[in-house]
Amino acid sequence: MNKIIIAIDGFSSTGKSTVAKQLANYLGYIYVDTGAMYRAVTLYAMQKGLINKDDFNKEALIYQLPNINISFKFNEEKGFAEVYLNDKNVEKAIRTLEVSGFVSQVATLLEVRQKLVEQQHKMGKDKGIVMDGRDIGTVVFPEAELKLFMTASAEIRAKRRYEELIKRGDKISYEDVLKNVKERDFMDSNRKDSPLVKSKDAIEIDNSKLTLEEQFNKILQLAKMAI
Ligand code: C5P
């Protein structure tokens, strides 16, 4: 069967990764969560003390970029690839609200984007890939055969993310999650390099009122037509 590239972009917490994983499993494709890569770089910066509440030492992070190795390993039990930072599994550590609070600043750095986009290109060179992020259909794979742009209201997205974090045992408030979602939307849409914009040829999916099953079926139909 012909293998294609499926690019899924959209605002934070729109459920991109959920549908991307479902689709990749169904089609036997590789799934790549590019947000996890930006989060892993952010975690590295936090661990090295390069970023904290009042200060972000951008030059030091750029200087240390060659020391940052991000990889993915498939977890059979979970059914998707988990992210590793310098060979350490950081899948859980990158999902905190603290990392979410800094990641969009890290993602504005051109040098960080260049490094990660280069790696993303390599991962998609044989096609058969579902990649989600903010710039996949516009910058990483403008030639992708299927491009989706996911949206939902900020309140609905924050509620979903809040429930996810509470389930994990995090102690946070819904208001803080909503604030973070709105801040990231703003920063991601307004940055100079590779801002979050809907590619002209992307199909917009507003999933505010769709169940996971309805969303999956709709997107699977689109994928089948594109293959
Ligand atoms: O997808 P997720 O919400 O985990 O992404 C975290 C952050 O990483 C985004 O808010 C954005 O700032 C950045 N990002 C990006 N480009 C991508 C993927 C994520 O700038 N392709």
Automatic annotation (TrEMBL):
Span of the signal peptide: none
Keyword check for Cytoplasm: yes
Enzyme class label: transferase
Record-annotated Cytidylate kinase domain positions: 6-224
Keyword Transmembrane: no
Subcellular locations according to the entry: Cytoplasm
UniProt-annotated binding residues for ATP: G10, F11, S12, S13, T14, G15, K16, S17, T18
NCBIfam families tied to this protein: cmk (TIGR00017)
Protein name per Swiss-Prot or TrEMBL: Cytidylate kinase
Species name: Litoribaculum gwangyangense
Gene: cmk
